[in-house]
Amino acid sequence: MPHADSAYIPSTIQSKREFWDHVYTQIESLVDDQRVWVSNLANASSVIYNSLKAFHQFGEGERAVNWAGFYIHADLFPQPKLVANGDSPPKDVLQLGPFCGKPACQFIPVGPGKARGVCADAYTRASTILVTDVEAYPGHIACDGETKSEIVCPLIWETTGERKVLGVLDMDCLALHGFQDEDKEGLERIAGLVVRSSDW
Ligand code: SME
């Protein structure tokens, strides 16, 4: 099957639960044979975003999902080997990772006393945050003035004796109340899959 067909949604898929199970399976097959996180998150964000566009419950129009992607802690990005000037890059931040949608903010501070916004809160609390109305969320960072609701899910690395939050998976919607519990469960499963399938 051509890779692009991973974002195809068969007409037999009607409920959100079926939708997220299908998206999970498609991402699982794409991340199966390689472990580079940048590549896995790039394909995961593309499958999520394009599958959402192809699914009638999100689709195009006023209820569309307008952004899906990842912010990853700056420590996990490869360190540059050649730098043009002496400025050190920001440290305790989530940095924009692979995504689909319009351009978004590059850094989100997460250090003590600096954390602000839905992504930073989901990261520091290590739990999913479902925002039904972004304007009512204190500290929300508006990357796109058209976004009305949002869900952010942490990427949690767990081995025996170690638990670490690597970053977040973020999804935005043009409608108020765009996401429900089924979306939370679907995204959390996908977050677990991309964490397990990649080397960090
Ligand atoms: N709204 C997010 C910022 C990221 S964008 O939505 C892509 C926040 O409040 O953290």
Automatic annotation (TrEMBL):
InterPro entries: FRMsr_CS, GAF-like_dom_sf, Phosphatase_reg/MetRdx
Single GO cellular component term: cytosol
GO molecular function annotations of the record: L-methionine-(R)-S-oxide reductase activity
UniProt-recorded name of the protein: GAF domain nucleotide-binding protein
Species per Swiss-Prot/TrEMBL record: Coprinopsis marcescibilis (Agaric fungus)
